[in-house]
């Protein structure tokens, strides 16, 4: 074949250099035709759009063309011309074709027909080749770019927190342990407790559930930082909203209090949604048409309105009024209850019809590090609640007072030996500071309209499932 440098299909659709010789490489989505002419829909992953390859059957050996079936990978030289067909504005008249790899129609699982999401999860190694997952994973990339750009433009520093943490937190039942010890021959002391002296770190170590505490240390030196990395929760939860391995974005900022923290969260989410609308038009349109007819409209509506600021106490009152008027919730609602996602979604989807930031939660249902309010009952927590998802962001102003933090940690059974370094930042130059965490996959559920969190991460890790 003549050597012409390859052009991505996305660039051909963008620049449309009609009348020039071009080279494309990609995977065959479909092939059809009649006795005179063949049509191949070719996709190379750069866009959801397929490039139509038109083959004049007089010019090609039938034997060469036979193995070009759905899933095969080919290299094509040809002339880019304006398309006569519906639905595309450019096509390539093939002059030379080379087959890189065939895909036996009897065994290649992605034939041209609808496939269920469950089936596609079983072939997660091939599902990026479908239109749906191509769109989702391109959008996953774009959301990561939006996040880094948002924080970079605002002078935040990207800070890498450890994936392995060696705080020997007893009662951390939801952590995955990391060890090099032989599990069949564990040395124990006279009380039956495992002796970790010979383990790699010399103490019990786990995979991180959050980078927040370490990010706070950095915020108390660099002013504003964010983490963006994998976190792990060994929660035996097989719901469409839970993963054992997922990615978190956690900004921590010195010198801001809860009101500015809420504003940062709102600006951040709106920035990501706007980025999706501006940079992922084709993929969004596809997901809107195929999966969720209200997707684009919902994304646009998030940009329109200010998010509601609502105290937990007022939120509970609204929910109690709804119950009094006959609304049925599966879980009971009362002051002090940890809200279920049905409660959160009622506030967002039915009562206010826009996103809500709920603040000032009862301290009993929140973590030890949240700043306590003067009422002695509530803490300066904030959760951002979204349509279809429920909680998408959780955060708070952090408790900067050493005595209050120390006392609260003790009350909640967090051993001082595990957080002495965290307490130190309150002993040496403490300052007001705040932050929040966004589950990356929750954001992706919202911007893609997908309904199961296993479908917005390439290789989901859930109970009893660690394939690929």
What does this structure look like?
This protein is an alpha+beta fold and 468 residues long. Helix content is 32%, strand content 24%. The chain has helices at residues 9-15, 62-65, 117-122, 131-153, 212-222, 258-279, 281-290, 295-304, 312-324, 341-352, 402-411, 416-427, 440-448; strands at residues 21-33, 37-43, 51-56, 73-82, 90-101, 157-158, 164-165, 177-178, 205-207, 224-232, 245-254, 308-311, 356-362, 378-386, 390-398, 433-439. A hairpin with a 7-residue loop joins strand 4 (73-82) and strand 5. The model has no long low-confidence stretch (mean pLDDT 95).
- Seen as an oligomer or otherwise, the chain set is single chain
The count of DSSP E runs of length 2 or more, i.e. the number of strands, is 16
Number of helices: 13
**Succession of helices and strands:** HEEEHEEHHEEEEHEEHHHEHHEEEHHEH
Low-confidence stretches: none
Strand content: 15-25%
**How far is it from the N-terminal to the C-terminal residue, by CA?**
36 Å
Largest sheet: 8 strands, mixed
> What structural class do the secondary elements suggest?
alpha+beta
From the alpha-carbon coordinates, what is the Rg to the nearest angstrom?
27 Å
